[in-house]
């Protein structure tokens, strides 16, 4: 990707960024466990250590002496509420890569804006399967048949697939 007029390449292993390289050939390696642990910067000639909260969000970055260089805090949706930086950092909420150009987190399958996912999931006439946002059009018979009675609505397609079948339909219609 192009950033500030320079081309930056990311190297992935098992869907995680493990290194980046700019067009000048400078590398930054990322050391990971269950979350991001440290980075090794050729330019700074040092290791930076990452401290995370229970969600895996980066809260502090320290140098090899334990001095806190960066400090972050987030609200429940991933918006940074505190941002104190002295060194450049690409990672943030839930330990994910923050795209400096768009200001959104890259979650491999889609970009995430703390307000919403940026993709076509949830558009009218489309169903999102549980498999990575795969979309398919609704077939006419899958359109929900709803009967409103006493302020309740009934989804017939779900009732037909239930174990109780006809008994449930009869009971609901009598309500």
List keywords for this structure.
175 residues, mainly beta, 4-stranded antiparallel sheet
Please provide a written account of the structure:
- 9% of the residues lie in helices and 41% in strands.
- The chain is mainly beta and 175 residues long.
- It folds into two domains: 2-108, no CATH class; 144-175, no CATH class.
- The chain has a nine-stranded antiparallel beta sheet, with no helix packed on it.
- A hairpin with a 4-residue loop joins strand 10 (97-99) and strand 11 (104-106).
- The protein is globular and about 75 Å long.
Q: For the largest beta sheet, what order do the strands appear in spatially?
A: 1-2-3-4-5-6-7-8-9
Query: Low-confidence parts, pLDDT < 50 over ≥5 residues?
Result: 123-135, 137-150, 156-164
Q: Largest sheet, if any? A: 9 strands, antiparallel
Radius of gyration: 24 Å
How many beta-strand runs?
A: 15
Domains, number: 2
How far the N terminus sits from the C terminus, by CA atoms, comes to 59 Å
Strand proportion, as a percent range, falls in 35-45%
What do the pLDDT scores average to? 75
Structural class determined from secondary elements: mainly beta
Provide a concise account of the structure shown.
With 175 residues, the protein is mainly beta.
Topology overview:
Layout: E1 2-3, E2 6-13, E3 16-22, E4 27-32, E5 36-41, E6 46-52, E7 58-62, E8 68-74, E9 80-84, E10 97-99, E11 104-106, E12 111-113, E13 116-118, E14 126-128, E15 135-137, H1 156-161, H2 166-174
Antiparallel strand pairs: 1-2, 2-3, 3-4, 4-5, 5-6, 6-7, 7-8, 8-9, 10-11, 11-12, 12-13, 14-15
């Amino acid at each position: 990707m192009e950033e500030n007029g320079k081309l930056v390449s990311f190297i992935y292993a098992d869907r995680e960024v493990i290194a980046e390289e700019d067009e000048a050939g400078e590398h930054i390696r990322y050391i990971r466990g269950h979350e991001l642990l440290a980075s090794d910067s050729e330019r700074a000639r040092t290791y930076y250590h990452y401290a995370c909260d229970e969600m895996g969000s980066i809260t502090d970055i320290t140098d090899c002496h334990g001095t806190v260089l960066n400090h972050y805090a987030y609200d429940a949706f991933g918006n940074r509420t505190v941002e104190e930086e002295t060194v450049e950092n690409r990672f943030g909420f839930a330990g994910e890569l923050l795209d400096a150009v768009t200001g959104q987190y890259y979650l491999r399958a889609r970009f995430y804006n703390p307000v919403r996912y940026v993709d076509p999931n949830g558009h009218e006439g489309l169903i999102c399967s549980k498999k990575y946002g795969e979309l398919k059009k609704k077939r006419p018979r899958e359109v929900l048949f709803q009967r409103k009675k006493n302020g309740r609505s009934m989804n017939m397609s779900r009732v037909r697939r239930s174990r109780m079948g006809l008994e449930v339909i009869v009971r609901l219609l009598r309500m």
